[in-house]
Amino acid sequence: MTTTFDRWPGRTADSDWHETSRRNARSVQTTIGWIFWDPGAVARYEALGLPGPLGYIASRGAPLAPAGPEALTAAFGSISSVGIALTFDLLKGDAAAFRDFWQTRDEAVDEGLRRYAPGIVDPLVEMGPALWSAVDRLPRLGRVFFGATVSMPRPQNPLLSGWHAVNAIREWRGDTHWALLAAAGLTSSEASIVHNEWLGYEDDWLSRSRGQTEKEIDEGWDGLARKGLAAERGLLPEALRLRQRLEDATDELTALPWRLLGTDFSVSFAERLEPACELLLARVDETAGPNYQPASRVRERYRNPEDHGRS
Questions:
Q1: What's the confidence (pLDDT) of residue 304?
Q2: How far apart are alpha carbons 108 and 298 in whole angstroms?
Q3: In 10 A of CB 2, how many CB atoms?
Q4: Is 50 domain-assigned?
Q5: pLDDT of residue 309
Q6: What per-residue confidence (pLDDT) applies to 9?
Q7: Alpha-carbon gap, residue 293 to 54, rounded angstroms
Q8: Quick one: pLDDT at residue 300?
Q9: How far does CA 279 lie from the centroid of its chain?
Q10: Residue 224 to residue 218: CA distance in whole angstroms
Q11: SS3 for 188-255, per residue?
């Protein structure tokens, strides 16, 4: 498979590793993402003084909290800058307070995995050391959120240690993906609009779910029109082709962890985690709704951009 990013150093070129990267990205996302809406986590955030969405920002953003809200906005990519600023205001910019949310999130992870997807416990415990070995060999260059995340203390709890190794791989992929979108010239609001249509969701649903304001959404549509990717508040097919190319490039450029881990380990990771991840995805359906965590969902029609947008 080729993309417009073929000239970039670091692409894998190997279609088998591309597929491995694509397949395991789904389990990586699901293993981590279910906690974002988990009532056990939300209750803990509320006990510390923040509602669920802001508690998510504080818990995930703890590694970069000392750098301030602008740095965290840049790292999160598409999450509302308003929500991030409000989180900093409510916590008075106290990095220690952010770490409290990181810790209480971990408590909810340990409790929730054992309760809702017990089949994931042994694989994460057993695979954790090898996953960390791969994480430690991943390049930091340009992956600031990943770098901050791996600087956090590693849990002594073997289940949480394995979970955090997966989380590090997730953040490494996320940093890579946002670098590609930035290189393509897309802003945060533009990227959300294009992603929303590529997913086949209702108008601007994804942008609003991430807390973007109506002003930010309007600016996103205006920017896409100026770039020749939208007209009359509808996307043109080239926007969806671009989004697919970016997804393919992300899969190619984030195959490295799996190459480091090897074929047998990568296949075992997929086969052992996927059944439990289906349970975690069902948990997302229950706690948030079926549109949430789109990276965990399989919709083959995404790969047919001519089915969407304006002609």
A1: 54
A2: 27
A3: 10
A4: no
A5: 45
A6: 38
A7: 17
A8: 56
A9: 19
A10: 10
A11: HHHHHHHHHHHHCCCCCHHHHHCCCCHHHHHHHHHHHHHCCCEECCEECHHHHHHHHHHHHHHHHHCC
Give the pLDDT confidence of 203-222 residue by residue, as tens digits.
999 999 999 999 999 999 99
Q: Is residue 5 assigned to a domain? A: no
In the structure encoding, which two tokens stand for residue 193, read together? 């609009």
Looking only at Cα atoms, what is the longest distance across the chain? 55
Whether the predicted pLDDT of 112 surpasses 90: yes
Residue 220 lies in a domain: yes
Please state the three-class secondary structure of the chain as a single string. Answer: CCCCCCCCCCCCCCHHHHHHHHHHHHHHHHHHHHHHHCHHHHHHHHHCCCCHHHHHHHHHHHHHHHHCHHHHHHHHCCCCHHHHHHHHHHCCCCHHHHHHHHHHHHHHHHHHHHHHCHHHHHHHHHHHHHHHHHHCCCCCCCCHHHHHHHCCCCCCCHHHHHHHHHHHHHHHHHHHHHHHHHHCCCCHHHHHHHHHHHHCCCCCHHHHHCCCCHHHHHHHHHHHHHCCCEECCEECHHHHHHHHHHHHHHHHHCCHHHHHHCHHHHHHHHHHHHHHHHHHHHHHHHHCCCCCCHHHCCCHHHHCHHHCCCC
Percent of the chain with pLDDT over 90: 89
79 in a structural domain? no
Domain with 195 in it: 15-35+120-307
The domain total for the chain is: 1
Q: How far apart are CA 175 and CA 173, in angstroms?
A: 6
267-300 confidence digits (pLDDT tens): 999 999 999 999 999 999 999 999 999 999 886 5
